[in-house]
UniProtKB/TrEMBL annotation:
InterPro entries: FAD-bd (IPR002938), FAD/NAD-bd_sf (IPR036188). One of its GO terms (molecular function) is FAD binding. The lineage of its organism: Eukaryota, Fungi, Dikarya, Ascomycota, Pezizomycotina. PANTHER family: FAD DEPENDENT OXIDOREDUCTASE DOMAIN-CONTAINING PROTEIN, MONOOXYGENASE ASQM-RELATED. This is Tetracycline resistance protein from transposon. It comes from Venustampulla echinocandica. Residues 8-243, 315-352 form the FAD-binding domain. Keywords: FAD, Flavoprotein, Monooxygenase, Oxidoreductase.
């Protein structure tokens, strides 16, 4: 019988891994987070990044349990809940002030900084790239051990490994052979800083919240963010999964010429949207001279992705249920996963024998994690179906009209609900 404390590893230091770690820390459960990236500087974390809208039942609930909700409210406000929809020529089909939504927006960088600041520094290992995870039985103890191979940084062994390591999760390989598949969309990400000061007419076009210009199965979208920025996302429906490699190493100027010069992409779009793309590409090059354009194919896991439960390892967030961003659920689901998984781990750990003995901990925890996984798969399937349906709406032949109608119905439903 083992006499050691349980050894818990969380692979991945994004919102899912950090939320899990913080919830465990608050209850005195030992763990170590391993993150691929080097520790970001405050300057890097201040840069514009993607905005996340937090949902009451998931992201907000997890943050409240972390004791951080009041702090979160102090660092939101860069992006409002206002929405604008236009066709490919920049004709506005819908606009609102976001008054039926109560979902605070926070930048991904700000969320990560806040979560990590409440976790002891020695429990986050930065710059650890997981190469492989393997499972074995500890001799004579009945204990399942998971060995993590970090290449030149060595190998370490754990009794529980939580894969919060994203789309191409190495931990998921312990549970399933399923891999993400290409969703048919390429995404280019660009940033215009100080957009109100430099380009007031573009600031007026995209508004203070989210903006979507849609048509021909493509989309040019914007979210406002830190430093008075507009984060521009160009979504291109392209059959060639490897399209991004044709721009490998090239700057946003090359991407601008390619995208705006191709009749199958944005060359037939109107002046207003083409100007938005042009300036976004130019600003990106001015801010990051010589850097390669940020373009990548988008991948998803099968809707309802599930696996046969195995002792000693589990996955959460994108590692478990990677989906498109079209339902705004990715980080919220991930933090919901974190909260419920943390509950299971804490319940097992606080069993008297489990706190002192790894084999006992694993025995008590295993059925709790199996039940957690069943629940997670069901929750994720519902959101993945919603995301898939929304993606088909946005990138249909007339996505702009369909999206404007979506908001019209949402507002009609809200008004009807208030009047009953």
């Amino acid at each position: 019988m083992s006499s050691s404390q349980p050894r818990i590893a969380i692979v991945g230091g994004g919102p899912a891994g950090l939320t899990t770690g913080l919830l465990l820390h608050k209850r005195g459960v030992p763990f170590t987070i391993f993150e691929l990236r080097q520790k970001p500087t405050d300057e890097e974390l201040a840069k514009p990044s993607g905005m996340l809208d937090l949902h009451e039942e998931s992201g907000i609930a997890a943050l409240k349990e972390c004791g951080l909700f009041d702090e979160i409210l102090q660092i939101t406000g860069d992006c409002s809940e206002a929405q604008k929809v236009s066709d490919k020529n920049g004709n506005i089909l819908h606009t609102d002030d976001g008054d039926i939504s109560q979902r605070p927006e926070i930048s991904r960088h700000a969320l990560s900084k806040l979560l990590s600041s409440h976790i002891p520094a020695d429990q986050i290992r930065w710059g650890y790239k997981l190469l492989a995870a393997t499972k074995s039985m500890a001799s004579g103890s009945g204990l399942t051990e998971i060995q993590l191979d970090f290449g030149p940084r060595g190998k370490q062994t754990f009794d529980l490994v939580i894969g919060a390591d994203g789309a191409w999760s190495k931990v998921r390989n312990l549970l399933s052979d399923t891999k993400p598949y290409y969703a048919g969309t390429q995404n280019i990400t660009l940033t215009i800083r100080e957009v109100t000061k430099k380009y007031p007419h573009l600031s007026e076009l995209v508004g203070l919240g989210s903006f979507a210009a849609l048509g021909d199965r493509h989309g040019v979208m914007s979210q406002r963010g830190p430093q008075d920025s507009a984060r521009i996302y160009i979504f291109l429906t392209i059959k060639d999964e490897h399209y991004a490699t044709t721009l490998a190493g090239q700057t946003a100027l090359a991407a601008k010429e390619r995208v705006l010069g191709d009749v199958e992409l944005l060359s037939t779009w109107g002046t207003a949207i083409k100007e938005l793309v042009t300036i976004a590409c130019d600003e990106e090059v001015a801010d990051n001279p010589g850097n390669a354009v940020d373009i990548h194919p988008m991948y998803v896991l099968p809707v309802g992705n599930a696996w046969e439960h195995k002792i000693g390892a589990t996955v959460i967030g994108d590692a478990a249920h990677l989906m498109g961003p079209w339902a705004g659920e990715g980080v919220n689901l991930a933090m919901w996963d974190s909260q419920l998984l943390a509950h299971a781990i804490i319940k097992a750990y606080e069993t008297e024998t489990a706190r002192k003995d790894a084999a006992s901990f694993q025995s008590v925890l295993d059925p709790l994690i199996e039940a957690f996984e069943v629940d997670m798969v069901a929750r994720a399937q519902e959101k993945a179906e919603e995301s898939s349906s929304n993606g088909q709406m946005l990138f249909g032949e007339d996505g702009a009209t369909a999206f404007a109608e979506f908001f019209r119905q949402a507002y009609a439903g809200a008004i009807s609900g208030e009047s009953t």
